[in-house]
Amino acid sequence: MNPPPLDLRALVADPTVRVLVTCGSGGVGKTTTAAALAVAAADAGRKAAVLTIDPAKRLAQSLGVGELDNTPRRVELDTAGADHSGELWAMMLDTKRTFDDMVAAHSTPERAAEILENPFYQAISTSFSGTQEYMAMEKLANLAATGEYDLIVVDTPPSRSSLDFLDAPQRLSAFMDGRMIRMLLTPGRGVMRVVGAGLTLFARAVRSVIGGQLLSDAAQFVRLFEDLFGGFRERAKSTYQLLRQPGTAFVVVATPESAALREASYFAERLRSDGMPLAGLVLNRTHPVDAAVADLPAASAETIAGLESDAERPAAELAGAALAVHAQRAAIAEQEKRMLLRVSAAHPELPVRQVPALPVDVHDVDDLRVLATRMGDG
Q1: 267-272-277-279 Cα dihedral, nearest 10 degrees
Q2: Is 366 within 8 Å of 298 (Cβ atoms)?
Q3: In the chain, at which end, N or C, are there fewer CB atoms within 10 A of the end residue's CB?
Q4: Cα–Cα–Cα angle for 22, 23, 26, rounded to 5 degrees
Q5: CATH top-level class of 8-177+229-290+341-374
Q6: Where in the chain is the domain with CATH 3.40.50.300?
Q7: Closest by Cα among 164, 154, 150, 161 to 52
Q8: What digits encode the pLDDT tens for the residues 267-310?
Q9: Where is the ArsA/GET3 Anion-transporting ATPase-like domain (predicted)?
């Protein structure tokens, strides 16, 4: 059974869609897909912002701009043949700067300065597991709250597990807001008075492993950050709810390879089980066979057999080579079709858009428009 079609150009032009999240395993073309969708939205007359969390700078390269940073930057578009009212803005997440801005926005200047200078904070703001994903959601929430953009396209972080994007905000907020860390790092309060002797022994053991200075820095960080602990959980909850709203759509991106499709299938199942609005699957870099030449093998065999003379032999060799290339591509297309059918059997109602591989890499907005055209229905 063929899957229902997914018209991505119609999706980004839909005024009810305000947030579009591209997700999937690494190396499947999420960044390029996100950029192409944002270009299509701008061409449809919308003010679109694309946010990438990919530090490899592929988004800046594909948009033809030198650098992107934590502040949205307008990308100039050649609007020939497009709605002239549309705009395209792009930015690349700076995890630490976003964390710093959040601290500054929810603390006094004096307290913020102490937090930002704390060594323990400096460590977790750049390298703690889940920080990048949490700050991506923080930046998304900030952009959505401004109301300046008709559509925000989010390119999710490349990760070993695509579920990290959904889990990390709750995981990090639970760590920051957890009672255990405060109990361990702020002795002398509440129940810690009762178990003070045990805590002292524990603290000595910890100091012997990680060092007294680090434990002291962590304790100071918790004291400084105490007023913000509760806010982490609430902010994570509100951002998670933003992802579940009707105005949000998730697009899972994969390539016609077993590992990528397994990850995509698992992610689609998880999104639906969490009540996330899943728009469909983008199957990148496919190799369809033109229906007009589907019967080429039989016709070519007859033609080659009729080329007998020495003068015609080069033409026969050329035709044979073309036939071999076509046969190889037809075999690849058939294999991709079988893999897609397995995904469709597991998710029969999941819309799919197959995007043929481009002959060259994407380098500028014109290339992105070509890619966006291939994402349309028909």
Answers
A1: 60
A2: no
A3: C
A4: 125
A5: alpha beta
A6: 8-177+229-290+341-374
A7: 154
A8: 898 888 888 999 999 999 888 876 444 444 444 555 545 545 55
A9: 18-288
